[in-house]
Specification:
- With about 250 residues, the protein is an alpha/beta fold.
- The protein folds into two domains: about 120 residues, Periplasmic binding protein-like II (D-Maltodextrin-Binding Protein, domain 2); about 90 residues, D-Maltodextrin-Binding Protein, domain 2.
- It is built from nine helices and 15 strands.
- The strands form four sheets. A five-stranded mixed beta sheet has the order 5-1-6-15-7.
- A hairpin with a 3-residue loop joins strand 2 and strand 3.
- Helix 2 packs antiparallel against helix 9.
- The longest helix has 17 residues.
- The radius of gyration is 25 Å and the shape is elongated.
Amino acid sequence: MRVFRFVVCMLVLVSFLAVPMMPGSASAAEKIRTITVATDATWPPMEMVDENKNIVGFDIDFLSAVAEEAGFKVIFKNTAWDGIFAGIAAGKYDAIISSVTITEERQKSMDFSIPYINAGQILIVPKDAKGVTKLADLKGTKVGAQIGTTGSFEIKKTEGVELKTYDEIGLAFEDMAAGRIAGVVCDTPVAANYALQQAEYKEKFMIVGEPFTDEYYGVVVKKGNKKLLKLINKGIKAVQAKGIDKQLEKKWLR
């Protein structure tokens, strides 16, 4: 009798172990976490809304890759810039990725991931420009920048290059298209927008070299949310180690 009961018990146990675990039965550590991430999708090519009303861009692809590497999922929420930081403090979403520059002032009220891209000043020239890889190569020419920007300061510091300033950066690109200046200096996302996204310019201009100022972007989380920050940093490190970030830079920013 005892033998029979033992056999029956063993059969029941084996049957139980063979049955797949139902959704929700995994431990908390095994569950794939889903987080809501705010982005102001008005800053191409970093974040924008395409013709199908999907949120796309470098930041979107980048954080999606980070999530895949770290084992969580992301839901993006298009959020106006003027309230985006108040929303993270109020817990309306878990994180922000929206071309947010890491500054000491912002670090007082929110936490940042490790930097994921240097969005500093970079040089754009016509596609037919030969032998130009850096600003100093344009010695003897005029180079444009928006007045009062770090881009204009960098041109001023370059011996032999004449600065021409503009109230709006778009006017500098118009002048370069007309042949009145030899290059434009501006921050990397703006450069990518004019050189890669705008139909009237993407066949005319190219970005050369690397950013020559340091203006780093980071992913924002609520102050004190160390658990999520650790998870995001884990994913960023994996993406950077595999060179996925460089692939995305070529897609969106070069």
